[in-house]
Amino acid sequence: MTVKRIDIRSARASLDVHAAQTILDAALAANLPYPHGCRSGRCGGCKSRLIEGEVELLQHSPFALTNEEKAGGLILACRALPVTDVAVAWLGGNDEDALQSPRRLNGIVTHLEDLTHDIKLVRIDTVGGAGSRFVAGQYAEVSFDGVPARSYSMANRHGDGGVEFHIRHVPGGAASRHVHRALKAGDKVALEYPKGSSYLRENHSGPILCIAGGSGLAPIKSIVETALAHGMKQPIHVYFGARSERDLYLVKHFRALAEWHANLYFQVVLSEADSAGYRRGFVIEAVAEDLPDLDGWKAYVAGPPPMVAAAMDVAFARGLNRCDMHADVFFTPEPTD
Known about the structure:
The protein is α/β, with parallel strands linked by helices and about 325 residues long. It contains 7 helices and 19 strands. The chain is about 20% helix and about 30% strand. The strands form 4 sheets. The chain has a 6-stranded antiparallel sheet with strand order 11-10-13-8-9-12. A 6-stranded parallel sheet has the order 17-16-15-14-18-19, sandwiched between helices. The radius of gyration is 20 Å and the shape is globular. The termini are far apart.
């Protein structure tokens, strides 16, 4: 069996990688808190710099790693098979010190609430109160009884007690159908978290841009509330895009936050309907109109793939450094009969 050696500079660790084992698989097997998300080359959460050696990159999404990024020496750890001994470093700075390895926990549903016609708030408390620490913007794998596990971003701040999710009903989706039609308070749930790398970088002192589409507001809510609670004083611009007014939620909440915090700017953009008090158009176009220079900013984007891709194009064209883009792509699962 061919064994390669990898030096993970960010973790100050060296370990063996066996044939057909990716860098991420080897790191997680060694209980290293390697930043990651989907583990299938779709989200870019494990994007890393290849410092030395060669790897074979398995199939991945262009949303996760562009050809330009590959030419610049970046790889996806979840899709990288070492061809030689290698040295790598995941992207980011000292904020990674706050990351925790995922834990499997049991939980109980304690609260359900309709936020819109197709988004439901689900509150879950862990059994015994022994929740796992997470960083604002991360997500959990959630397993409801009898349906496939799904990934949902935490919408609350760590320390609030339990975890809160905003779950959109997906036509044909088994998990979301169960949540919207059958789930009730007292039901048991299995959780595995924290996961994901699109989390708040508290060491960053420059301006912050947050873009949310639909239920992508969940991780943005966690990021914004945490930043404000931790005393981050830089400008924070939040853009929330939806189709029509019936798709909006938590608008009063964010407007109240903006009244209390002078550094918070909140803008709603509707793409398919005119409504008094709301901007009309596409949310990314609004960002492009308002913010011509994003050099020195951090951007957090959460929503469907087309929106995330458009946000990346606009942000990079306006000077955002690629390592300052943190995206949470909300893929829709395949319909289930």
